[in-house]
Every structure is written in C-alpha cells, then in structure tokens.
C-alpha cells in the first residue's frame, strides 16, 4: 500500500489484527506524517524501516529497522538506489524469519503457490506425467524383432522387460540395441530380451515428485526412467515430459 493512496481510501485495507511495516528512506515525507496518526488511531502496531533513525517515522514507530546508507548509487546522490536495495535485503530477512517462526513447510508453499515452475516442483508427481505415456514392455523371452517393434511403436526410446509373472527384470533402450548390433557375434534370430537387457534399471515411484525423476536423469545422463507402483512396472517418464512442464 502506497502512503499517498492510503490517505485517499486504501487505509480501509488495514485491519485491527494487522502489523504495519512502513518503508521510507527519509521517514519525513508529507504522506508519512499524515498516515502515521491515522494508523495509530486504528491501534495497529507500527514498525519503521528507515535510513534516518531520527526521522518522524522512526520516532513514532513501535519498532525501528535502521538501514543507514552513506551515499546512493545514483551519481547525483539523489535517486533512492542503494537505500532501496538495503530495504529489499531487510525485507527478505524479515520474510525468512517469519517462515522459520511459523514453521512454514514446502507443503505449505505448494498449497499457497501452486502456479508456475516453483509450484510444480512441489506438487507435480511422477504418476501425473507417466500415466499420459504408453507402456512399452516385452517378455524376457521376446525375440529381437518384437523388441525393436515395441521400442519403435511406443516412441519412448526403451522398453521394460518383464517375466511371465509380470515382475520387472530389466530395461532395453535403443542405445542397447545399437551396441548389441556392433558386438554380437551369433545369429540375430537367436537373440532374446534376457540376453541384452540391463538388469536393476534406475526407476522412480509414481508417488515421487517429478523433480526427483529429473535429478536421477541428470545424475545418470539418461532421458527416460521406468516408473513403478508398489514395486511393479507401471510405465515410463521421459525427459520430454519434464521439458513440457517447464521443470528443465
């Protein structure tokens, strides 16, 4: 609330349970001198964030945050520049102190700030993204042709390899196929999924946060992760999913 607007109607926003922090470099502007008595009439506590500790505002306030500035960055030492930066720094310090005193958690932040990338980091789960993708999977007995068709058709660059009972046995990526073709000396018709899979693949749970999936991809330098639910294969999450949500 600007001091000039306050005395022209905006003062109605101030409620009896509010705490007012008035920010002014000089603390002696005409608007401040009109506003302070009105605030006192409302009975609200008043803190002054000022550069001049001897100012009218500082003398009238219950609490004083003194932010002295010897000289402004303005070459003429006129426009508030250094003093505004000092006020911002003290304001941030107050905000952090308030967070700690109220024991404000990441969950509180997500509840009150659901929008934008910051909010998504705190509420978007892996399952919210992986359920939109196809679920490429083959049995461990699948021949090479079926593996290639599954990876190509589902367009995620990989397929999960499952046992006949549905247990996750490993993963095969398109990179695994290329490496196999350069090193395999036998008959390609005899290749089975179990022969070329990577066992114990990196995975995330559907209830993990999406930013955790991003961290694991970056740590391993990979672009997709298997997603599990109750320790069983549930699908895939791809780097493109995270890019689309603005998390990268």
Automatic annotation (TrEMBL):
A Pfam family this chain is assigned to: SIS
Membrane-spanning intervals of the chain: none
Domain CBS per the UniProt entry, residue ranges: 197-248
UniProt entry keywords in alphabetical sequence: CBS domain, Isomerase
GO MF, any single term: isomerase activity
Any single biological process term in GO: carbohydrate metabolic process
SIS domain segment(s): 1-104
InterPro entries xrefs: CBS_dom (IPR000644), CBS_dom_sf (IPR046342), GutQ/KpsF_isomerases (IPR050986), KdsD/KpsF-type (IPR004800), SIS_dom (IPR001347), SIS_dom_sf (IPR046348)
Similarity section: Belongs to the SIS family. GutQ/KpsF subfamily.
Protein name as catalogued: Arabinose-5-phosphate isomerase
Organism (species): Hymenobacter psychrotolerans DSM 18569
């Amino acid at each position: 609330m600007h001091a000039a607007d306050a005395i022209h109607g905006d003062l109605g926003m101030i409620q009896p349970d509010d705490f007012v922090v008035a920010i002014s470099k000089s603390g002696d502007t005409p608007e401040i001198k009109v506003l302070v008595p009105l605030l006192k009439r409302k009975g609200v506590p008043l803190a002054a964030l000022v550069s001049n500790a001897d100012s009218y505002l500082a003398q009238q306030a219950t609490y004083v945050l003194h932010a002295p500035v010897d000289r402004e960055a303005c070459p003429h030492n006129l426009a508030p520049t250094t003093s505004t930066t000092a006020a911002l720094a003290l304001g941030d310090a107050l905000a952090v102190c308030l967070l700690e005193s109220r024991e404000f958690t990441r969950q509180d932040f997500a509840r009150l700030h659901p929008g934008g990338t910051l909010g998504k980091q705190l509420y978007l789960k892996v399952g919210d993204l992986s359920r939109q993708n196809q679920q490429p999977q083959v049995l461990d007995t699948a021949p090479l042709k079926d593996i290639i068709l599954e990876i190509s058709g589902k367009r995620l660059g990989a397929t999960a390899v499952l046992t006949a009972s549905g247990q996750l046995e490993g993963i095969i990526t398109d990179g695994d196929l290329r490496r196999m073709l350069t090193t395999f000396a036998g008959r390609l018709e005899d290749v089975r999924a179990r022969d070329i899979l990577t066992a114990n693949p990196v995975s995330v749970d559907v209830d993990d946060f999406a930013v955790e999936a991003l961290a694991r991809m970056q740590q391993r330098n990979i672009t997709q992760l298997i997603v599990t639910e109750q320790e069983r294969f549930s699908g895939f999450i791809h780097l493109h999913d995270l890019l689309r949500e603005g998390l990268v």
